[in-house]
């Protein structure tokens, strides 16, 4: 299922965006030259595309797939990648706490 999910995410990213799996079920997408509203819009595009993509189970039945997304943008020149990931992770947990299958900015 990971490879299918990766293909779905890659299908909505731009040629200059970067994508990497971050642990088993998590991924990170770097969207250069994207502001806060653009990052959240990109997260929402990914979320909607995944939601629309069912996966066939072992018996052939379609299994719905959802994702919760946390997004962040760099705030100031001093902010590190670790800072951005920490805020995105907090936003992800907020999306899950809000019921899942949502995008949140941190």
Task: List key phrases describing it.
106 residues, globular, 6 strands, two-stranded antiparallel sheet, single chain
Written overview of the protein:
The two termini are 28 Å apart. Helices cover 42% and strands 17% of the residues. With 106 residues, it is an alpha+beta fold. It has helices spanning 2-12, 36-51, 81-97; strands at residues 18-21, 27-30, 55-56, 62-63, 69-71, 103-105. The strands form three sheets. The protein has a two-stranded antiparallel sheet. The chain is globular. The chain is built from three helices and six strands. The mean pLDDT is 88.
Question: Briefly, what is this?
Answer:
This protein has helices at 2-12, 36-51, 81-97; strands at 18-21, 27-30, 55-56, 62-63, 69-71, 103-105.
How does the SSE layout of this entry go?
Elements: H1 2-12, E1 18-21, E2 27-30, H2 36-51, E3 55-56, E4 62-63, E5 69-71, H3 81-97, E6 103-105
Parallel strand pairs: 5-6
Antiparallel strand pairs: 1-2, 3-4
Helix pairs in contact: 1-2
- Amount of beta strand: 15-25%
Number of helices: 3
Number of strands: 6
Class by SSE composition: alpha+beta
Strand order of the main beta sheet, please?
Answer: 1-2
Helical content, roughly? 40-55%
**What Rg, in angstroms, do the CA atoms define?**
14 Å
State the order of secondary-structure elements, H for helix, E for strand: HEEHEEEHE
- The rounded distance between the terminal residues' Cα atoms is 28 Å
Categorize the overall geometry: globular
């Amino acid at each position: 299922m990971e490879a299918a999910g990766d293909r779905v995410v890659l299908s909505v990213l731009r040629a200059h965006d970067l994508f990497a799996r971050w642990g088993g079920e998590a991924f990170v997408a770097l969207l250069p030259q994207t502001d806060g509203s653009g990052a959240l819009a990109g997260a929402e595009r990914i979320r909607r595309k995944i939601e629309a993509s069912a996966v066939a189970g072992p018996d052939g039945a379609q299994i719905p797939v959802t994702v919760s997304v946390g997004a962040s943008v760099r705030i100031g020149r001093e902010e590190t990648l670790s800072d951005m990931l920490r805020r995105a992770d907090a936003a992800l947990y907020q999306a899950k706490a809000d019921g899942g299958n949502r995008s949140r900015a941190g």
